[in-house]
Amino acid sequence: MLIQRGYIFIITMLVSLGSYQGYSQVPNIVLTDINGNERNLYQSLDDGKIVVVEIFATWCFNCWELNKSEKLERLYSTYGPTGTNQLEVFYIEADPNTDLSSIFGNESFGDWTEGITYPIFNPDQISLEFLEIFAGKGVPTTNVICPETREIVADIFQSDLAETIEIFQTCNTISDVRDLQIVKPVFSEIGICKPTDVVIELLNTGTETITELSLDVTLGVETLFDFISTDVNFEPGSIISVNIGEYSLPSNIDTQQLILNIRTEDDVLSNNTLPLTYKHAEEVLNELHLKITPDVFSSIDSTRWWIENSVGEVVVPVTFISGAYKIEETITLENNDCFTFIIQDNYGDGLIFGDIELSTSSGVVLFDEEFFRTRGEVSFDHLGFVTTGVDTSLETAYDLVLQSTVVSNELNAQIEMPEAKVLELSVVSLQGQVLFSKKIQGGLLLTENMDVSHLNNGLHFLQLSTPEGVLTKKFIKQ
């Protein structure tokens, strides 16, 4: 997809913007980054490093998309200070009107520093000569400068990872580098409610093709999974998915952290290990609510969502998303099962300029990650339906009122009924289990105080059983 650039400010559009090809050498850049550290472009070049100078602006949505793609960060992981130490990056916000708070997400697309380990600069002044050389085509511009010639050899703004690695090698300073790294999952914790395949993505950011692959997953000192393949053709800049094995979270454990290790021999050890944290999936009662605001890149043939059951059958059909239509849906599932909501985007940037929220009827958000790359998903354990409102046949005869819906030790309820009767008042768990109940008897208006200090924290229900039906009220024990 061809992405157009944005101009930095109006004045740069009024001058004759020269191409960097007219400059035999770039001028030196001496700047202090947002952490107070001074950086010198010529010093990095004299040290034999390739230097990438990326010019961006916090109001530029293509700059934000490039930031979230993590392309530069992944290369910095391999060739930067924690890797082979052959690369330096100058990430420069080139609009002098930009306040530092914008870089941290104030009135901009988000936190530009999140996940970034290379230096970020926010200078107060930018000269027109600087813009002509380093951002002559607008923002974003990602300049690659070779150390020997001090010349810009390419703008890799729209180059993929494989092309960028090839461009780096034209500087004749990087070669024979072997490095695999793990692509981090979107969520820090993965919720599961069924035996789940441990599928991870690996990226080859080195210069060499990998033909043998060795991985393991450990829990403490125990090796849970061991994966070895001698039949791969993993070229530089490519990404592959590997299914290591099936994992089940023990029912008596809330969360469990596994450690994924790359054992394949390479030159950078700092990106060979990643914790994988699993937790029990959210328990869901009643219907789900889905809201999607598409972004400008959502097209009718590339972005879609659906829901699968525990055996992989599609139970809510595939729905395509278009940039022209906002989605608000209530989703009702008939069975009790472990379901998975899946959203997929062929372009690979998720809904970076849109919004998505999948939530339960009680307001618990299950999924709201706009930048899910190519595929986002979340599993949830659907437990069925619990009556959470007043049956219309009871409205004029009975009433059940809670003094407070958030309680610590005592739950106070007021009960109104048409005549003196013996009724049953029960506290029910989120799973529908009756935790305790009592018979109540009295006149037309009763007040009941119940000790709930022994309950687990979380959502519960108070139910009043009458000959005409059941009244249910929600409360939260904290």
Q: Overview of this structure, please?
A:
With 478 residues, the chain is mainly beta. The protein folds into four domains: 160 residues, Glutaredoxin (3-Layer(aba) Sandwich), CATH 3.40.30.10; 101 residues, Sandwich (Immunoglobulin-like), CATH 2.60.40.10; 99 residues, Lipoxygenase-1 (Sandwich); 86 residues, Macroglobulin (MG2) domain (Immunoglobulin-like), CATH 2.60.40. It is 10% helix and 41% strand. The chain contains seven helices and 32 strands. Strands 5-4-3-6-7 form a five-stranded mixed sheet. The protein has a five-stranded mixed sheet with strand order 9-15-14-11-12, with no helix packed on it. A five-stranded mixed sheet has the order 16-24-21-18-19, with no helix packed on it. It is elongated, with a radius of gyration of 29 Å. It starts with 9 loop residues before the first helix and ends with a strand. About 4% of the residues have low confidence.
Write a short abstract of this structure.
This protein is mainly beta. The protein has 7 helices and 32 strands. The chain has a 5-stranded mixed sheet. The protein has a 5-stranded mixed sheet with strand order 9-15-14-11-12, with no helix packed on it. Strands 16-24-21-18-19 form a 5-stranded mixed sheet, with no helix packed on it.
